[in-house]
Design brief:
This protein is mainly alpha-helical and 112 residues long. The protein has four helices and no strands. 74% of the residues lie in helices and 0% in strands. The longest helix has 34 residues.
Length: 112
């Protein structure tokens, strides 16, 4: 029976084995990487909010002026801009996860 107990694995253990097999060893993030990822998330959130405020107010103005075409163009611009911000943020986060620098302010060159 001891052999049966050794072979029984939790769903978590099985999932981790599959992940390791498919993607290689899963590395833990350092504290610096975690801080950089958090800072990138804050920057992304701020940029998304900024664009939404700016463009949504322009959309409202266009609609108030009866310019439906302009409002539609602005909606498309908003969607494209939000997608671009998210994609750039995810690219920066992936660089950090792989051990590179993200370009987060205040994290480099402060020795001495």
């Amino acid at each position: 029976m001891a052999d049966d107990e050794k072979q029984v694995k939790s769903a978590y253990e099985l999932a981790m084995e599959r992940l390791k097999r498919d993607e290689g060893e899963v590395l833990s993030l350092t504290d610096v990487q975690k801080r950089e990822l958090a800072e990138i998330d804050r920057e992304i959130t701020a940029k998304l909010a900024e664009q939404e405020i700016l463009l949504k107010s322009r959309i409202v103005d266009a609609l108030a002026a009866g310019n439906v075409e302009e409002a539609a163009k602005l909606r498309d611009e908003l969607a494209n801009e939000l997608r671009r911000i998210r994609e750039r943020g995810e690219a920066r986060k992936e660089t950090v996860r792989k051990g590179g620098r993200s370009g987060v302010e205040g994290e480099s060159g402060e020795s001495g």
